[in-house]
Write a structure and sequence with these properties.
single chain; alpha/beta; Rossmann fold; four-stranded parallel sheet; 3 helices; 17% strand; globular
Length: 106
């Protein structure tokens, strides 16, 4: 239980690499702030299932990383809830067809 007593915030936690990362940290005993763009019953059930399976706290958090105001509000809520963030996994991304070196900075 390498992360017992630690809180990990993971963006893009609802599928793919983010979902797998969420489970890996849960397995290691971390409390999780699992971020997704929008709330769905499937995501809520999945996170509740992981929390039960690994006996950890998983708090779903919803915001779109393209919306600066939504990010600020989510962080304010996390602070209001007195949640400390020990580890941040910035996993969320936007697919882009092409070479990484040809991706515009914007």
């Amino acid at each position: 239980m390498m992360f017992k007593g630690k809180t990990v915030l993971i963006t893009g936690a609802n599928r793919g690499i983010g979902r797998a990362t969420t489970e890996a940290f849960a397995e290691e005993g971390a409390a999780l702030l699992a971020c997704a763009r929008k709330q769905t019953p499937e995501f809520e059930a999945d996170m509740a299932g992981l929390a039960k399976k690994y006996k950890v706290e998983i708090t779903p958090v919803y915001f779109d990383l393209a919306d600066e105001e939504a990010i600020k509000n989510a962080i304010k809520q996390i602070a209001t809830d007195k949640k400390r963030i020990d580890v941040l996994v910035n996993n969320a991304g936007v697919p882009f067809g092409g070479l990484m070196t040809m991706t515009p900075i914007a």
